Amino acid sequence: MNILTLLIFTPMLFGFIIMVMPSTLRASFKYITLLATLLQLGMSVWIYCNFKNGDAFGGISHESQFQFVQKLPWVNLDLGSLGRMQIDYFVGIDGISVTLLVMTSFVLVIAALASWEIKSNLKGFFVLFLILDMAVTGVFCSLDFFLFYIFYELMLLPLYFLIGMWGGARREYAAIKFFLYTLFGSVFMLLVMVALYLSVKDPVTGSHTFNMVQMMNPANYQPGSVFSILSHQTIFGMPARAVGFVVLFIAFAIKVPVVPLHTWLPDAHVEAPTPVSIILAGILLKVGGYGIIRVCLSIFPDVASADAYWLGLLGVISILYGALNALAQKDLKRMIAYSSVSHMGFVLVGIASQTTEGISGAVMQMVSHGFLSTMLFFLAGVVYNRVHDRGINHFRGLATIMPKYTAFMIIAFFASLGLPGFSAFIGEAFSLLGAFKSHSVNGLLPYWMAAFGAAGILLGAAYFLWTMQRMFFGRVNLKGGAVWQTALTDLNLREKITLVPLALIVLALGLMPSLVFDKINDSVLALVQFLQVK
User: Fold this and answer.
1) Are 212 and 146 in contact (CB under 8 A)?
2) Residue 239 bridge partners (DSSP)
3) N or C end: fewer C-beta atoms under 10 angstroms in the chain?
4) Could you tell me if 516 and 364 are in contact, meaning their C-beta atoms sit under 8 angstroms apart?
């Protein structure tokens, strides 16, 4: 069996095992889930180590660009005079996919360890957790748009219940808001997917196809092709392809999230339990960035170049707006949520630059933020689990009573604010380098966007350092007094085992960014060349 298929469906197998086990064995559910995620991590590391660099691939629009490919007929309908409908189970990965897969597998292990805090309805929680695991893994592996859409939509249902059933006081409101936002983008994505299906034909069978690689084929733009005809069609006064690009971008921008489509994120994070917050920030946001690269840029390169200025502008607005909101927050988890909006803005700026440096920086930023946001939300959960409070102003002098916890929080804060030597510095620096270089290379972004983006790093330092100063230093002063001081015990063994690998990874990526860049370089070069000859 193909290794990607094993990677995708292993959690479903373990989820089925948990489902049929009697509830009397509820204590073992968390260990079964942890085993499933560890097996996935092992497979993803094996895939990473066996992924070939530097081969002369055929380019973004050729299947030879992808490795570990499996393509099997899935749905085959005879439509009579309209031909045949062929949908394939088509999976494969390139350099961008493989780095995000490893990051996703690692984050899921951390989320499984964080799930030790869940005490009620364990069977339901871990089954939904493993379904979500399967869905996010499938998104990064899918090369058939129909399959991609199924996995993309499948993420929605378990997240809705995980927030709505195991969240905080306003969990129903946060879950419904998240559901409606995401569903809004997905419904219109379905319409564009059908339009693309009707616009592209398989060169071998001659039938319409959902094959995403075929949708990227430059031959689609030849005079007389359906794609070419669509370029001259209008919808509501806009070119049809521009409408398709905008609709898909909105669907993915909700996930990123891009301002002003971000308002579901702080509510979802604040109300979600710690493991779900980890998955939301560590993985779900990257699905949005990955979708923009894999779908919007690759299938609509002409529109992406025409609208690059507006994408860059939205990225800069997200950087500054998210940072300023983080500076104003009094809830630790909400502050981290708004910092995610700011940090993901660098991803959009890097993508909009359409330079090798910018797109490489965007991917590095996604990988880096996946690990750092996981670390930050896990640390926020440590305090909340002890005293059920996250008010930044309700704590002071934590360094005195929780020195080990403080050490990890300092590492996470300094790494997140872009300190050289850590992963976020590489991601943000290359994203801004790409934005700065864009003006002279392709003329897509003005210099001032890079300058305003750099100001976001300064604001990031402000809100992280201010939070650190208020919570951890000075004389001990806790809202709960002596009761809190007794409850706020330092890190236990499970928490140390969780945090040490995260700290080492963000340091390793900062000192050896080639761990990511070597894998993504061929794919990024192929994408940039494709965008230049669109």
Assistant:
1) no
2) 234
3) N
4) yes
The pair of structure tokens assigned to 399 is 């360094």
Rounded to an integer, what distance in angstroms lies between the CA atom of residue 436 and that of residue 353? 8
Question: Using omega within 30 degrees of 0 as the cis cutoff, is the peptide bond preceding 239 cis?
Answer: no
The conformation of residue 82, written as its DSSP 8-state character, comes to G
Residue showing tokens 């270089």: 437
Contact 182, 61 (CB under 8 A): no
For residues 371 and 422, what is the distance between their CA atoms, to the nearest angstrom? 11
3-class secondary-structure state, position 54: coil
CA angle 274–277–279, rounded 5-degree value = 115
- ω into 257 cis (within 30 of 0): yes
With beta carbons less than 8 A apart as the criterion, state whether 358 and 434 touch. Answer: yes
Dihedral sign, Cα of residue 328, residue 331, residue 336, residue 341: negative
Per-residue pLDDT of the chain (534 residues; tens, 9 = 90+): 789 999 999 999 999 998 888 888 888 888 999 999 999 999 999 999 998 876 544 556 566 688 898 888 888 777 666 667 778 899 999 889 999 999 999 999 999 998 888 888 888 899 999 999 999 999 999 999 999 999 999 988 998 998 888 887 788 888 888 888 888 888 888 888 888 887 777 777 767 788 888 888 766 665 555 555 555 566 666 777 788 888 899 989 988 888 888 888 888 888 888 899 899 888 988 999 999 999 888 888 888 888 889 999 999 999 999 999 999 988 898 999 999 999 999 999 999 999 999 999 999 999 999 999 999 999 998 898 888 888 888 888 888 888 999 999 999 999 998 888 899 999 999 999 999 998 888 888 898 999 999 999 999 899 999 999 988 888 888 888 888 888 888 888 988 999 999 999 999 999 999 999 999 988 888 888 888 765
Give CA separation, 40 vs 25, 223, 281, 371, in Å.
23, 46, 20, 17
Query: What tokens appear for 193 in the block?
Result: 């997917």
Residue among 355, 336, 291, 313 nearest 467 (CA): 336
Rounded CA-CA distance 276/281 in Å is 9
Distances (CA, A) of 392 to 275, 395, 417, 464: 21, 6, 18, 11
- With left for phi above 0 and alpha for psi between -120 and 50, is residue 474 left, alpha or beta? left
The encoded tokens of residue 254 equal 């909700």
- Whether pTM exceeds 0.85: yes
For residue 138, the 8-state DSSP code is: H
* Cα dihedral across residues 175, 176, 181, 185: positive or negative: positive
Burial class from Cβ neighbours inside 10 Å (0-12, 13-18, 19+) for residue 156 reads middle
Q: Which residues fall within 8 angstroms of residue 134, CB to CB, at 6 or more apart?
A: 8, 9, 11, 12, 15, 151, 154
